[in-house]
Amino acid sequence: METGLGVGILIFFIVIIIGVAGLVITWFTSYNRLVKYRNWVEEAWAQIDVQLKRRYDLIPNLVETVKGYAQHEQETLTQVIEARNQMNNPDNSRNEQMAANNQLESAMGRLFALREAYPDLKANQNFQQLQEELTSTENKIAYSRQLYNSTVMEYNTKIQSIPTNFVAGVHNFIQQEMLETPEEQRENVKVDFNTGDRS
Questions:
Q1: 44 in any annotated domain
Q2: What's the domain count of the chain?
């Protein structure tokens, strides 16, 4: 009788130990997954940031090139420089940074439109090369933006799902904000850098 009671207690403790071990393993696994997803979000943002920096660095060369041919277009050049400077505010949130990027894109459209009024500018090799580089950079920003939003969606889903939501709450994993799409970009707006027109 005493032997049967002893075996029962032993089995009870083994079940408790297995349960605790399972809980600890689940906890560590969930934590590591959340760290992985959070790092993916940061990596996705870093890709956007690299392209924004590249665009930021290309603009002074473009402005200088245009200035040489279109000296009377000071207002347009000033708008581009101001929009560029807004992108460099370290206090901006990610969405504010993308909003500044959208303003810059609009100002750049007006700048590229000047080429129609200045044939010498249009034929300038440096201007053409800068156009191509900026167009390529804009495409990379758009792609990186999509990647960032899909990564944030996966991360946020993990944070809200059971059982990782318990781990996320204890270790202060907070939801990330997805990058918003401006209203005008929801209407299939096409920016053509060859003409500077929007259609």
A1: yes
A2: 1
DSSP 41-105: HHHHHHHHHHHHHHHHHHHHHHHHHHHHH-TT-HHHHHHHHHHHHHHT-TT--HHHHHHHHHHHH
- Return the ∠ at Cα 21 (arms to 19 and 22), rounded to 5°: 65
Q: Give CA–CA dist 106/79, Å, rounded.
A: 10
- The residue type found at 58 is L
For 132-152, what is each residue's pLDDT tens digit?
A: 999 899 899 999 999 999 999
Nearest to 83 by CA among 61, 67, 65, 102: 102
Contact status, residue 137 vs residue 190, Cβ threshold 8 Å: no
User: Residue 162 phi/psi, 5° resolution?
Assistant: -85, 135
Distance CA 36, CA 52 (A): 25
Given the structure tokens 């758009």, which residue do they identify?
142
Amino acid identity, residue 19? G
pLDDT for the residue 187: 52
Q: How far apart are CA 199 and CA 188, in angstroms?
A: 9
User: pLDDT, tens digit, for every residue of 50-100?
Assistant: 999 999 999 999 988 988 888 778 888 888 888 888 887 888 888 888 888
Contacts of 145 (CB under 8 A, 6+ apart): 48, 98, 179
Is 113 within a domain? yes
Q: Residue 82's domain is classified under what CATH number?
A: 1.20.1440.20
